[in-house]
Design a protein that fits this description.
Number of strands: 6
Largest sheet: 6 strands, mixed
Number of domains: 2
Radius of gyration: 26 Å
Helix content: 40-55%
Structural class: alpha/beta
Length: about 180
């Protein structure tokens, strides 16, 4: 090979690495970062506490919610039995809820649910459902029920409960996903 041929070959290689193809290499990390950010935002949802419309509860303080979630509160002030409805503790949507309300690991919450429902086949303290739609339907159909659901799954069949004086999507709301 001549020096002139080698110079052209070297220029062609440099052009392929630093010329037209380089922006493609720059896009790949940007696209990957965008995908990761989208997945984490999708998993971090805003949650709401909802109640059966026949319940007299319109607001809960955090300690009251914790007692309900841990099956330490059996009845509402009007005498109706309390049932807490939630999605499976292992769902990514409940990560914020487990951290801020239960303050327990997933396995500990699963054990708590099992123990809370032991001997209560006719009226479990905590009910696990498959989807947000199932959750809303269960809360709407069961007097005394309260549940935690994605805010965008709420419909007119349930009442939204204030938590620590705030409604979902208000600044400072405890169950904000981010």
């Amino acid at each position: 090979m001549t020096v002139e041929t080698m110079t052209k070959l070297h220029e062609n290689q440099a052009e392929s690495h630093f010329g037209l193809e380089r922006p493609v290499y720059r896009r790949i990390p940007c696209i990957a970062l965008l995908i990761v950010a989208s997945v984490s935002v999708a998993a971090a949802r805003d949650l709401a506490i909802v109640s059966n419309k026949a319940n007299s509860v319109s607001a809960l303080a955090l300690p009251e919610l914790v007692k309900i979630c841990k099956a330490e509160t059996n009845r509402w002030p009007d005498g109706k039995p309390v049932t807490f409805i939630m999605r499976a503790p292992s769902t990514p949507e409940l990560k914020v809820f487990l951290q801020k309300v239960y303050e327990l690991q997933i396995d500990q919450v699963k054990d708590l649910v099992t123990n809370a429902n032991h001997g209560r086949a006719n009226h479990p303290a905590i009910v696990i459902v498959e989807s947000d739609e199932d959750l809303v339907n269960k809360v709407a159909s069961l007097p005394g029920a309260v549940g935690v659901v994605d805010v965008y799954a709420i419909n007119s069949s349930v009442a939204v409960v204030k938590l620590a004086g705030k409604l979902p999507l208000e600044p400072g709301y405890l169950l904000h996903g981010n």
